[in-house]
Specification:
The protein is α/β, with parallel strands linked by helices. Helices cover 44% and strands 13% of the residues. The chain starts with 21 loop residues before the first helix and ends in a 7-residue tail after the last helix.
């Protein structure tokens, strides 16, 4: 596995899907998203199938169990961790019959270090992010987990070009010192951007494959993520634009320097009447015009996704959302000049 370019000009999904049938979910993503399928997450199966539980249970040399407050670090392995590990192993095995000989790009997802630190509980209570030593332990364990997880995927898909997505929805709250204490009466320490970036960079280096960081919060720290060597940043375009948090000058400069944008453009919940492809592409057109880039650069600089994970959607809308995002990506690939119309 070697580092390389993250896929562009294609459609993919963030990770989670509705339902409990992993075989059907894997078949769906390979059918609907042939240019960049991914390993689905099915949180409806219960604890350990969610983003935090799946990653926490895989942490090298650390152990977790599930408490009312969430996943907690513990001294030894227990039933919750074993169950989560078995679910992940089953998910990986589901790849084998669906994709024999697959030699395209394939994406896997893990929770990032700061989202884990904001979600995991210390053994005696309180979030990991409040303890710098525990943060280092989790980040170091996650770096080893990244390596072993990618190796596990490569054994099932030996010819695939792997891409790693790190999910960091809590990163902006960590940077802002907005993670609440256990009592809810205060907030934990704000983490410096240099500290946050250093931990992310270690994971990018450990992966040795293209890394995209997904953040569905409205205040995405593009500069921090790009400086941490992320090849791409995945975000909800509508939420970020609505919050007025896009620094277009800085973002344009970073795109010029090679940062790829994975734009979340399809709603995660069914809006009643599905949008048309033209409506899906309207915010892409708006962003690209505001950045001042030539339409011909689109295929080299963006990919399209749903706005976030689809776990809360109906199975029907999930299929529609994947179809829409794939159609929109094909439209851009075939006629990028139409972005101006």
């Amino acid at each position: 596995m070697t580092a390389g370019a993250v896929p562009t000009g294609v459609a993919t999904a963030i990770g989670s899907l509705p339902g409990e049938d992993i075989d059907a979910a894997v078949a769906l993503v390979f059918e609907a998203l042939p240019d960049l399928p991914h390993l689905p997450e099915l949180p409806a199966r219960g604890p350990g199938a969610d983003m935090i539980g799946r990653t926490a249970a895989a942490l090298a040399d650390l152990h977790v169990d599930l408490q009312p407050a969430g996943w907690r670090l513990v001294p030894r392995i227990g039933l919750d961790e074993r169950r989560a590990g078995a679910l992940l192993e089953r998910d990986l095995d589901a790849l084998v019959p669906v994709a024999p000989g697959f030699n395209g790009s394939f994406k896997v997802q893990l929770a990032g270090p700061w989202t884990l630190a904001a979600a995991l509980e210390l053994p005696r209570g309180g979030k990991v992010v409040g303890d710098p030593g525990a943060v280092r332990d989790v980040a170091d364990a996650l770096a080893e987990t990244v390596r072993t997880h990618l190796e596990d995927v490569a054994r099932r898909l030996p010819d695939a070009h792997l891409v790693l997505q790190l999910d960091e929805p809590f990163l902006p709250a960590v940077l802002a010192g907005a993670v609440p204490t256990g009592s809810g009466m205060g907030q934990l320490r704000a983490v410096e951007e240099s500290e946050a970036g250093a931990a992310l960079r270690r994971l990018v280096e450990a992966a040795a494959v293209p890394v995209v960081v997904h953040c569905c919060a409205p205040d995405v720290p593009f500069g921090l993520l790009h400086d941490a060597a992320a090849t791409a940043v995945s975000f909800d375009l509508g939420a970020t634009q609505a919050a007025g948090r896009l620094d277009l000058d800085d973002l344009g400069e970073r795109v010029d320097r090679g940062l790829v944008l994975w734009l979340g453009v399809v709603p995660t919940l069914g809006p009643g009447v599905p949008p048309t492809v033209r409506q899906v592409l309207a915010p892409v057109r708006d962003l690209w015009q505001r950045l001042g880039f030539d339409a011909g650069q689109l295929g080299r600089s963006i990919a399209l996704t749903p706005a976030c994970g689809l776990a809360g959607a109906s199975e029907g809308w999930a299929r529609t959302a994947l179809r829409l995002v794939a159609q929109a990506a094909r439209t851009l690939a075939e006629a990028p000049e139409d972005i101006r119309t």
